């Protein structure tokens, strides 16, 4: 089955009105005996009405069928040259030429101004060569007014319209891209704050859950008192962390600067492990930090190397913090080892926890911690991994330690 023929849109009201006015004006001129070429007697005077009516019938189709109207208009204006001529026919032809450029296909809109310009030049040269009088140039001028002028006007208008459409589309695309950027920024910020909230609070809540479960499970005043002490300490620290996070979210004035200074770094790992020792003592867990970084002031043997970028220190601290939280939840009694090393422009962070069947109470996990650690590493262009290696559960990360790598 062949393709369906393209339907021609109904005539525009203005085109119908234009056709009626044009034909009526041509009939009036003919009735008054006003002809464009009265000296031509090849055909009867009424023959000039045939091209007039034919071209007038094309006016309602000037938008929907520009190719057809231009072809009929060209034939009609040529036929008009063999009669006494009617100015209305010529005027209708100029409008059909203009409409063919404005409403026709892009290829036609590009070709017609060039074609009519060449025809104008050719007619001018031929008229001068044939008649050999300066007045012969008027034939070329009239030809340009009737054909080249409308085509050039139509091309100019079409270019302006296309430029306006292109500008509107660019504006819409810019608005859409801006909205997409805003949405992505909001999603990224929400993900960042979710990681901060999880990493800052999960450690304290996990310790509270484990020790409260132990206090309820073991009927011993000493155990209950010890558990309540740990619970209180973690509650106070968790509340302080929540207040700091709220201040970070508000991001206002001097408070924002204070929060930026208070952001944790690798220098606070000793305090973090000391807190982990307190929280994990009841579970038989010990914690050891093997710090291979020579970057703190006051160390024997020198002042240390260049400090790590702040985003790298924060990410490494949070990865260690979340790994210790997971060890408190799931590790069996034993030693949790934290290793830091710097080599080849990469900061390596490794946390090994004893793996096995754990007796006693344990806090539930959601898996969000591993996701957050992976996101932190990948956002800095680093790598992250975790998994069981024999009797050890290992969490490791490699982060770029150079400022330019982090900024890229």
Backbone shape: rod-shaped
- By DSSP, the count of extended strands is 5
Report how far apart the termini are.
58 Å
Radius of gyration: 43 Å
Strand content: 5-15%
Question: Would you write up a description of this structure?
Answer:
Mean pLDDT is 80; it is low at 252-261 and 296-304. The chain contains 12 helices and 5 strands. The longest helix is centred in the middle third of the chain and has 81 residues, at 137-217. It has helices spanning 13-31, 49-58, 66-80, 87-103, 106-131, 137-217, 221-250, 253-261, 269-280, 310-330, 368-379, 403-407; strands at 285-291, 334-343, 346-354, 383-389, 392-400. The protein has 2 domains: 13-174, no CATH class; 266-408, Histidine kinase-like ATPase, C-terminal domain (Heat Shock Protein 90, 2-Layer Sandwich), CATH 3.30.565. Strands 1-2-3-5-4 form a 5-stranded mixed β-sheet. With 408 residues, it is of the alpha+beta class. The chain is rod-shaped, with a radius of gyration of 43 Å. Strand 2 (334-343) and strand 3 (346-354) form a beta hairpin. Helix 6 packs antiparallel against helix 7 and helix 6 crosses helix 10 (310-330).
Summarize the SSE layout with pairings.
Blueprint: H1 13-31, H2 49-58, H3 66-80, H4 87-103, H5 106-131, H6 137-217, H7 221-250, H8 253-261, H9 269-280, E1 285-291, H10 310-330, E2 334-343, E3 346-354, H11 368-379, E4 383-389, E5 392-400, H12 403-407
List the keywords.
408 residues, alpha+beta, Heat Shock Protein 90, five-stranded mixed beta sheet, 63% helix, 10% strand
């Amino acid at each position: 089955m062949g393709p369906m023929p393209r339907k021609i849109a109904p005539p525009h009201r203005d085109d119908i009105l234009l056709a009626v006015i044009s034909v009526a004006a041509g009939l009036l001129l003919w009735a008054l005996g006003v002809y464009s070429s009265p000296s031509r007697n090849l055909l009867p005077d009424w023959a000039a009405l045939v091209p007039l009516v034919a071209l007038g019938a094309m006016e309602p189709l000037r938008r929907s069928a520009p190719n057809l109207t231009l072809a009929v208009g060209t034939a009609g204006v040529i036929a008009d040259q063999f009669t006494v001529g009617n100015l209305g026919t010529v005027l209708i032809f100029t409008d059909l030429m203009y409409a063919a450029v404005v409403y026709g296909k892009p290829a036609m809109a590009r070709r017609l101004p060039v074609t009519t310009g060449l025809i104008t030049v050719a007619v001018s040269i031929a008229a001068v060569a044939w008649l050999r009088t300066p007045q012969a140039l008027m034939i070329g001028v009239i030809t340009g007014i009737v054909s080249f002028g409308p085509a050039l006007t139509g091309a100019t208008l079409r270019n302006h319209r296309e430029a306006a459409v292109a500008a509107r589309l660019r504006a819409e695309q810019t608005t859409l891209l801006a909205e997409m950027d805003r949405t992505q920024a909001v999603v990224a910020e929400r993900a960042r704050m979710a990681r901060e909230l999880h990493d800052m609070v999960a450690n304290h809540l996990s310790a509270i859950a484990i020790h409260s479960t132990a206090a309820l499970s073991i009927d011993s005043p000493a155990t209950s008192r010890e558990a309540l002490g740990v619970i209180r300490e973690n509650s106070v620290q968790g509340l302080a962390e929540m207040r700091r996070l709220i201040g970070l979210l508000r991001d206002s004035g001097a408070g924002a600067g204070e929060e930026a200074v208070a952001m944790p770094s690798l220098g606070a790992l000793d305090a973090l492990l000391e807190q982990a020792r307190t929280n994990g003592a009841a579970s038989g867990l010990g914690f050891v930090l093997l710090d291979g970084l020579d970057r703190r002031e006051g160390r024997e043997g020198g002042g240390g190397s260049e400090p790590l970028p702040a985003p790298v220190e924060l990410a490494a601290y949070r990865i260690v913090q979340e790994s210790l939280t997971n060890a408190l939840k799931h590790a069996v009694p034993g030693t949790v080892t934290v290793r830091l090393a710097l080599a080849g422009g990469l900061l390596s962070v490794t946390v090994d926890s004893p793996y096995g069947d754990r007796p006693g109470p344990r806090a539930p996990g959601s898996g969000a911690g591993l996701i957050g650690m992976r996101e932190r590493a990948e956002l800095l262009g680093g790598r992250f991994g975790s998994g069981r290696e024999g009797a050890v559960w290992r969490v490791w990360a490699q982060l770029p330690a150079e400022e330019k790598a982090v900024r890229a």
